[in-house]
Amino acid sequence: MRSWDCGLNLGPANDAIERLEGRVRENAERHAHKVSLVGVSLGGTLAREAAKRCPDCVERVVTLASPINLPVATPLAPVARLVSVLWDKNAQDAIGRIRQAPPVPVTAIVSPGDGVIDWHACIPEPSPLVELVMIAGAHMTMGSNPDAQRVVAARLASARDAATR
């Protein structure tokens, strides 16, 4: 497992999606197989976009409490509006298409008890490649939530098994 190593995640600011895409391509090439992307909150939103840009490098995407339906009701909306001035034009265009699923398997882990963002904003459109898993938990602890961790581990194991076939 590797971190994204692209700095503080302020959304699609300062070519964040391009940097993430570069990391995905670099890791897929280095390991000679597709990679799986796991992202919490906005990290999952960016992972979905990276998977759209390089589906040839991505086996699967797992998102945890990741908003994809705009506008997102959250107490953090004023901060998002403030930071959005840093977003580049290509990223702003991508935000308009963020709801569109990537052409790879996606597991969206969502909690109705999120507490930070409206959980409805994290519900993907039904698709044969999209799985929705509902769990109980708070937004800020989603990455350490045992139920979420079990789902992530199972999906990563299935992606690894698929890659070795």
Condensed summary:
With 165 residues, this protein is of the alpha/beta class. The protein contains five helices and four strands; from the N terminus they run αβαβααββα.
Labels describing this entry:
about 160 residues; alpha/beta; four-stranded parallel sheet; 5 helices
What can you tell me about this protein's structure?
The protein is α/β, with parallel strands linked by helices and 165 residues long. It has one domain: Rossmann fold. It has helices spanning 16-31, 42-53, 77-83, 89-96, 146-164, and strands at 35-40, 58-64, 106-110, 130-134. A four-stranded parallel beta sheet has the order 1-2-3-4, with helices on both faces. Helix 1 (16-31) crosses helix 2. It starts with 15 loop residues before the first helix and ends with a helix. The mean pLDDT is 83.
